[in-house]
Amino acid sequence: MAANNSVTGDDLWYIHVRFTILQVLLVFFISTNLLLIITFFKKEYFYTTARYILFAITLLSDSFLLFLSNIQLILLHFRFPIQVWLCIIISVVVILYLTVTPVTLTVMTLERYVAICMPLRHGELCSTRSTMHCILIIHGLSSVPCILILSTIFVSASLSFYKQYQICLVEFIFVDAWQHNFRAGIYQVQFLIMCIIVIFCYVKIMKVAKAASGEDKKSTKKGLRTVLLHCFQLLLCLIQMWCPLIESSLLQINVSLYVIVRYINFILFYLAPRCLSPLIYGLRDEVFFHAMKHYASFGFSVLVFELCVHSSQTSSSRNLEID
């Protein structure tokens, strides 16, 4: 992170080490996401299936978020100021895609609920057309916090403020303390709504899992494990929504402590949730895993992939395949 004039040589060394570690991690995760995105667009089976379409949305939003967050990180590390209006644009996009991922994960949990608890209506409710409409709704809902947060800046800042040069951090854009509290309040409302939806889906799927038998029980339990992973991933994303409140409070107390906590939060609540998406669908999902291996190995595993797709389509026709 950024250094100030009073840091010692050892402190400066640790700052550069932390920055280098973050760059390596970011390059790794963004590269992995790009491989998964390429895999998604290569096969019609993926971009015509609801759960894979939603998975691709999380990959794209995570990639945008990591890329733009890294731009802010680089500017902060080298203490390179930019005009406030440009910083606001970058920050608004970051806030948007910060919200898109947890909203999409909530929708993916609902999709699993429909697949397990209402299998006969799954094809109707989770068609490709319905999923495309759902993507618009996801971005519409995710833009509400952006609009509300952006409006607090417009009502409290003068026109000259947007022409000033400063380090690009959302905390520095907010003029008054109430704006930090307002942003935290919005995130807490989101946290509550998403938790209610996820808990509802989990309880309903649990009831179906207890009532199922034989092959149905095995498939339902697999779906239940997937929902649990979604819950854990969503929990990390939702905890991330509390981070701005903690960080803005620390910024007023101790800048050095703020930098350390922000670094830890970035690792735990920015990067960690975004490495779970490749785990859930890139490794656990047999069809996607073999497709990814097929393209990563330049086509040597094509036969295994085609067999997996055929098996998945056959199982889906019997309403037994739960991701």
From TrEMBL:
Keyword annotations of the record: Membrane, Transmembrane, Transmembrane helix
Record keyword Transmembrane present: yes
Keyword Iron-sulfur: no
Signal peptide residues on this chain, from the entry's feature table: none
GO CC list: membrane
Top-rank taxon: Eukaryota
PROSITE patterns on file: G_PROTEIN_RECEP_F1_2 (PS50262)
Main location: membrane
Compartments in which it is found: Membrane
Every G-protein coupled receptors family 1 profile domain range: 32-281
Pfam (any one): 7tm_1
Membrane-spanning parts: 20-41, 53-76, 82-110, 131-155, 184-203, 224-243, 255-272
GO molecular function term, any single one: odorant binding
Protein name: G-protein coupled receptors family 1 profile domain-containing protein
